[in-house]
Every structure is written in C-alpha cells, then in structure tokens.
Amino acid sequence: MTDTTNKDDRHKARQQKLKEQVDARIDAAQQEKGLVLVITGNGKGKSTSGFGMIARAVGHGQHCGVGQFIKGTWDCGERNLLAQHGVNFAVMATGFTWETQNKEADTAAAKETWQQCKAMLADDSYDVVLLDELTYMITYDYIALDDVIEAIEKRPTTQSVIITGRAAHRQLLEIADTVSEVRNVKHAFESGIKARKGIDW
Ligand code: ATP
Ligand code: MG
C-alpha cells in the first residue's frame, strides 16, 4: 500500500467518524420552537446579522417585522429593500439619542416604538421579529426590562425574536436560546475612514 492510499484511508475514516457524530447530534435535536437570539458585542456585524436573518425568512415567504431603535431617521438600505417585501417597520421617530440630548422626547419615542413592537410580538402572523438596537433602550431605562422579558416570553410559540445591540442585559442573555458576541478586532473608522453606504448603512 502506498503512502497516499494510507493517507486517503485515514482521511476517509476520520470523515466517517465525524459524520456519525454530526448525524447523532442532528438526530438528538428534536425540539421545534421559535427562538430568542441575541447578537451583542463591540464589533461590527450585529444589525447586519439580524437583517440577514430577516432576509432569509422573507426568502422563505415568512412574515417579518423590525423595530428600529436609535437610528430610525437614518437612511437604511435594509429598510429600503425589505419594506418592499412585506416587512413591517416600527421606526423610532428621533435620531441618535446622544445627538438629541432630550431625555423626555427620546423616552416617549422609544416607548411609542416599543408599543408597536409589542403588538408584533403578540401577533402570531409574525414568524420573525427583529428588535434592532433594543439593548440601549434598556440600558438608558427608556423601556422597562420586565416589560420586554414578559412580551418575549408570552409571544406565540412559533415566533422567533432577534435582539441586537451592545452590552445586552444579563437577563436578556438568560432568556435567549442563541447568543453571539461580535468581537471588535479592528474597524476602518478607527483609521479615520468614513462610514460607507452599502457597508455601514
Ligand atoms: P452593522 O450595522 O454594520 O452590522 P453593528 O450593528 O454591529 O454594525 P452598531 O453598534 O449598531 O454596530 O453601530 C452601527 C454603526 O457603527 C455601523 O456603521 C458600523 O460600521 C459602526 N461600527 C460598528 N462597530 C464599530 C466599531 N467597533 N468601531 C467603530 N464603528 C463601528
Ligand atoms: Mg447595530
């Protein structure tokens, strides 16, 4: 037997073992339910991940909703596209929170957007709901954490919810089925490069 044949056989055996392990884990996953996903951390890719899942669901003919907190008044490529495909948007009426410096107006705007999101979370016609940048609303105490947890826990069992934003509250992580933390390795902005249409919004 040549060396190459030996190597091929060993590779085949390893792959076969790996396949058996993966198949066993796929068989073991029997639960079918809507998920809670949290995408957090300081790196770039949280909102784009959330919108990626919305695009995925829309591609399967599913009904989706998006709540956009904080950057509602900004131009948004995903909103421009997905609103044309039946995705319902609840958009916070003020711009960047740290730009407006008006806590009362920001709180009112956040609460108004949250009410629209709550209606989606209570509606079983929605398959997936994205709550983009929701974590900050809790950190700033614009929306009560308990109210968010209750709405998520009471949602229809088939509905999935995605929450994005930095520094997600510990209790959000606890109720989530899937949590991903995007780590910042480097970001173009730190080298003085301007945010780009199509990449950053
Ligand atoms: P994206 O919307 O691109 O997925 P994100 O949701 O992970 O980004 P946010 O914290 O919501 O990030 O910030 C949104 C904007 O800030 C985007 O323009 C993004 O490119 C930029 N950004 C994200 N992470 C960083 C970072 N570590 N340093 C500087 N700018 C960042
Ligand atoms: Mg974001």
UniProtKB/TrEMBL annotation:
<dbReference type="InterPro" id="IPR025826">
    <property type="entry name" value="Co_AT_N_dom"/>
</dbReference>
<comment type="function">
    <text>Required for both de novo synthesis of the corrin ring for the assimilation of exogenous corrinoids. Participates in the adenosylation of a variety of incomplete and complete corrinoids.</text>
</comment>
<comment type="pathway">
    <text>Cofactor biosynthesis; adenosylcobalamin biosynthesis; adenosylcobalamin from cob(II)yrinate a,c-diamide: step 2/7.</text>
</comment>
<dbReference type="GO" id="GO:0005524">
    <property type="term" value="F:ATP binding"/>
</dbReference>
<keyword id="KW-0547">Nucleotide-binding</keyword>
<keyword id="KW-0067">ATP-binding</keyword>
<keyword id="KW-0808">Transferase</keyword>
<dbReference type="Pfam" id="PF02572">
    <property type="entry name" value="CobA_CobO_BtuR"/>
</dbReference>
<dbReference type="InterPro" id="IPR003724">
    <property type="entry name" value="CblAdoTrfase_CobA"/>
</dbReference>
<dbReference type="GO" id="GO:0008817">
    <property type="term" value="F:corrinoid adenosyltransferase activity"/>
</dbReference>
<keyword id="KW-0169">Cobalamin biosynthesis</keyword>
<keyword id="KW-0963">Cytoplasm</keyword>
<dbReference type="GO" id="GO:0009236">
    <property type="term" value="P:cobalamin biosynthetic process"/>
</dbReference>
<keyword id="KW-0627">Porphyrin biosynthesis</keyword>
<dbReference type="Pfam" id="PF12557">
    <property type="entry name" value="Co_AT_N"/>
</dbReference>
<feature type="domain" description="Cob(I)alamin adenosyltransferase N-terminal">
    <location>
        <begin position="1"/>
        <end position="26"/>
    </location>
</feature>
<dbReference type="GO" id="GO:0006779">
    <property type="term" value="P:porphyrin-containing compound biosynthetic process"/>
</dbReference>
<dbReference type="InterPro" id="IPR027417">
    <property type="entry name" value="P-loop_NTPase"/>
</dbReference>
<comment type="similarity">
    <text>Belongs to the Cob(I)alamin adenosyltransferase family.</text>
</comment>
<dbReference type="GO" id="GO:0005737">
    <property type="term" value="C:cytoplasm"/>
</dbReference>
<protein>
    <recommendedName>
        <fullName>Corrinoid adenosyltransferase</fullName>
        <ecNumber>2.5.1.17</ecNumber>
    </recommendedName>
</protein>
